[in-house]
Amino acid sequence: MAANLNLSAVVVEVEAEEEAQVPGTGTVMGTGYNLPALVFGVLLIVVIICGNLLVCLSVFMEKALKTTTNYFIVSLAVADLMLAVLVLPLFVFSEFQDGVWTLSTTICDGLMTMDVMLCTASIFNLCAISIDRFIAVSIPLNYNRKHVDLRQTVLLSATWILALAVASPVIFGINNVPKRDPSECKLENDDYVVYSSVCSFFIPCPIMLLLYCGMFRGLRHWEEARKAKLRNSIQACRKLQEAAAASLPPLASLPPPLPPIIERELTDTPDEPSTFPSVEQPFHVSEYKDGPVQTVSFAEIRFNPEPQRRKRAKINSRERKAMKVLPVVVGAFLFCWTPFFVLHTMRARCPDCDVPPALMSVVTWLGYVNSALNPVIYTIFNTEFRNFFKKFLHRCCS
């Protein structure tokens, strides 16, 4: 009787084990469900979609935000949107099933392809932004600030083409290795893991950081030159006033101690052509050394004949604010994705290194959270984005 009971117990255990196996395989599934991962994943998807949609709408609907830098930001937002729509739902589904993959390996390969491509596109977009900003600071005369020109079109196109090239080996079968475990969805080829990590992260990041260092060094030199020019302008205006005051009787119509041009330049209001007199063409004062001079001809004040050309060589306050936001975006990206790429590469190159699955899951979630951070960063650090978001949300709620 005892032997029969033991045999029955063994049969029940074998049947329960067979029910927990993946259909068509001999792999045992996890029997638990990760409800917190499902809730957090759904909330993250909603936040990413809503935030990045607002970013895209703000650039296309708000005239003040239609700048070349913001078109690159739209490209970055599109990558985050595609991640939320094409990658995160399947990833959340797998995490909800305690990390067990129950769908086909073909779907898994498609998921891995999109995951690699969109992550690579995100960092390549940040790299393209750094190249664009470096050009804007280094050679501003040749930089088109209003419209996307050929150089910027090439940068945007190369961003997505190169990202697809890095990810394409997965869809072409590099993931089909012998003894592949169909209950796991991951990159199976260790050499490809290293290749994709180097191309997607470890090469672009140093290049991007070097370009930003060069950009801010150039921006600092530009600021110093601008302040020196203002000081020279103030001194020239004061000398002119002193000369006029020494030769003329006191008149109520004389210019104020500091002409409006100085105040205008100090406030640096962008996007409007300068209508103030050029410092290189001062007030025309008649010769007064040989005889008394009673008037100063304000009618002969000369305006800048080519305001648009001079303005193109100038970095306005809106662009300087955008440049200050971009390092925060880059810093957030590096903070969120560096742990993942370090552990991902270490696990591929060091089979004996023990990387707990829970830790790998945490750093993967941290990387995906980055897609929700960029709209928050724009809202905090960019007044124009913040004003549009408030206006749009108020319009939707009212």
UniProtKB/TrEMBL annotation:
SUPFAM superfamilies: Family A G protein-coupled receptor-like. It is a multi-pass membrane protein. The keyword Transmembrane applies. The chain crosses the membrane at residues 37-60, 72-92, 112-132, 153-172, 192-212, 325-346, 358-381. It comes from the Eukaryota. InterPro entries: GPCR_Rhodpsn (IPR000276), GPCR_Rhodpsn_7TM (IPR017452). Its main location: membrane. Keywords: Cell membrane, G-protein coupled receptor, Membrane, Receptor, Transducer, Transmembrane, Transmembrane helix. One of its GO terms (cellular component) is plasma membrane. It comes from Solea senegalensis. Residues 51-378 form the G-protein coupled receptors family 1 profile domain. GO terms for molecular function: dopamine neurotransmitter receptor activity, coupled via Gi/Go; G protein-coupled receptor activity. It is found in: Cell membrane. One of its GO terms (biological process) is phospholipase C-activating dopamine receptor signaling pathway. This is D(4) dopamine receptor.
